[in-house]
Design goal:
The chain has two domains: 37 residues; 99 residues, Sandwich (Immunoglobulin-like), CATH 2.60.40. It is built from one helix and eight strands. The strands form two sheets. The chain has a four-stranded antiparallel beta sheet, with no helix packed on it. The protein has a four-stranded mixed beta sheet with strand order 2-8-7-4, with no helix packed on it. It is elongated, with a radius of gyration of 27 Å.
Length: 149
Amino acid sequence: MRKIFLSIACLVVLAACNNQQSVESTADSKETSEIAAIDTANAPAFKFEKEVYDFGKINDGEVVTYDFKFKNIGNTPLIISSATATCGCTVPQYPKEPVAPGAEGVIRVVFDSAGKPGMQNKIVSLTANTIPSLTELNILGMVEAAEKK
């Protein structure tokens, strides 16, 4: 009798564990389907005139500024939540207000070459409500070392 009771108790515990896994699986698949259901047709989207700017050759210590012009070619407002660069010598400035569908905007990038001789390739990463959410811009060129006196 005791063996039967233990067997039944084990079955109940196993059934409960198995039921918990199926609830978690259902929740995971629901979350995945919600992500897949994002309306990509209406999502905002960047369309840049240029995504790479080559400033050519400059002398150590010169400051280069470039405006990456873009248009929101999506059907909803484009919201940029952050803009970061690979180095403190490169500072991006971006619109803090939403960019309406069809409207244009500018990402201004300022690169200070002081103490940065040699080939430079700085990446500016934009995080926005676009698909995909990460967009990268590049500013590159050669910084000529200052002549030693």
